[in-house]
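User: Predict the structure for this protein chain, please.
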Amino acid sequence: MTEYDVAVVGGGIVGCSAARELAADHEVVVLERDAIASGASGKASGVVTFSAQRSTLPEFVEYSLSFLREWEGTAHHEFHRRNTVELTPPEKEREAKGRVEAAREAGFPLRFLDAAEVDARYPGVFELSGYVGGIEYRDTGFVDPYTATTSYLEDAETRGADVRTGVEVEDVKRSGNSVDGVETSDGPITAGTVVCAAGWRTRELLAGVVDVPVRPIRYQAVDLRPDRSLGDAYPMGIDPVGEYYWRPQGDGTLHVGGGDTLVGTPGEVRHGVTEEFRLDVATDVPGILRGFERAEVESEDTCPTGDAATPDSIPIVDCPLEGLVVATGFHGYGIMASPSAGRAVRSLVTGEPAPFALEDLSLDRFEETGDRFELLSLTEKRAKYG
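Assistant: Here is the predicted structure, written as structure tokens:
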């Protein structure tokens, strides 16, 4: 078959979520150049926190959180509920309390705990000498990224979607000022709508069609074997000083991520973390968490070619031309944002109302930014975007 209502370019979690949303009432094909979840999605940490987006995108956040909780048990998806503690250094106490107040007004169950309260609630977990307390999130958790992606895809296939892997999309087909299909390594495909969810490669694919300001970045992660048992209630966490995040794993290790860097040459492949990141984790984590003084790195990984970042760290989901929907720039939180991303794509394709403001995700908020922007640190994101 070479004619479809919708051709989804990219078999990562955002593309698979979009296919799931559309397949029940559209002829959909998913086109992936490698294997499903073989890029940034499959190498993600899977944390579901939305620590930096709750005041800027509250409805977007709430839709994703509710979906991931309610989708539990569908296909192979599991949402592992864990509280998250975002530690607060003294100089950030006022700002942290302000974010908690704003999030609570938006309906999120956050609260600020002083150091004594953190230690009482999570005894023996944190080394708090450099912190005044932390923000406690009670609606967070984590998923397995590969399983979540393939669960979306399984739902999409059950609803009738075709999936083609090992097929590279080489160009988009245009008719006047609209897009009406793609050219692939297997030949042309005609589609009423093309959904481009190809991560940072979206910019390359759409060059000459529309300017998409994204850059490839890499997040790095190591799995540490601690000196203690973590237990079923061990919290996830965020350290804004070293810009680390972590979550416990079923094998008793702790997954520690961070160290995001720009990819110098787009397309360059790397599978291990930098020596600098490995040494930083070994030095910093024992000063944040107890029981990691003699922890060893059991495994490590990173995005092979990188995730997609935008200038303001907020994704792009928009319809810049008739017949073209762009969904990219998820900046490390595509796993947790995938339900809202899929619903936003459906709204743009069908004209149905979305349960959140699509204007926040528009492409035209950027003016000739290109791909030469600098990354914002976690602290800068907090200060600029809440």
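Confidence is low (pLDDT under 50) at residues 382-386.
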